[in-house]
Amino acid sequence: MELILIGFMGSGKTTVSLLLGEMLNTPVTDLDVEIVRRADMPIADIFAQNGEPYFRQLEHDTLAEILKSDQGILATGGGTPMRPDNLAMLKDTPTPVVLLKASATETLRRIGGDNGRPLAQSLDEKGIADMQAQRQVNYNACADLTIKTDGLSPAAIAKEIISFLNLPVSAS
């Protein structure tokens, strides 16, 4: 892996990873998309039919396999670093880990009404802020760089990451 993006749901991990992949001419893997592919069902259905523990095990197994790859960008799920063994893998990887952080207000604006996010269904701004606070210690524990995304375009975020990592941008 060349780069791992972490952060709360709606922080921009998927959007920024795809943009970085294009700018750096490197493959991108979205952990949630890969889980959906492997389970052959949407995340909401995985939660509904099998529960969160089952989903988290799928997430762990998929993460472990993807981290063995030597190229590309990985966008994790918002809860990925909350499982202790996932946190350990993210802390131990030599791959730079970038935390994208959005305020609760911005997060609600981005994910409000998204039925594909089972954990966000009943969250208001305070619920989002509380969940973000619960996750922050784990996010900070494995992040090499934190970018506050409020008010930044995906392109500005991508440029900040490229600058931090001193990566060459593809001419394509």
From TrEMBL:
The keyword Kinase applies. Its cofactor is Mg(2+). It is found in: Cytoplasm. It comes from the Bacteria. CDD domains: SK (cd00464). Keywords: Amino-acid biosynthesis, Aromatic amino acid biosynthesis, ATP-binding, Cytoplasm, Kinase, Magnesium, Metal-binding, Nucleotide-binding, Transferase. InterPro entries: P-loop_NTPase, Shikimate/glucono_kinase, Shikimate_kinase/TSH1. Mg(2+) binds at T14. It catalyses: shikimate + ATP = 3-phosphoshikimate + ADP + H(+). ATP binds at G10, S11, G12, K13, T14, T15, R117. GO terms for biological process: amino acid biosynthetic process; aromatic amino acid family biosynthetic process; chorismate biosynthetic process. GO terms for molecular function: ATP binding; magnesium ion binding; shikimate kinase activity. Pathway: Metabolic intermediate biosynthesis; chorismate biosynthesis; chorismate from D-erythrose 4-phosphate and phosphoenolpyruvate: step 5/7. Its EC number is 2.7.1.71. Substrate binds at D32, R56, G78, R135. Belongs to the shikimate kinase family. This is Shikimate kinase.
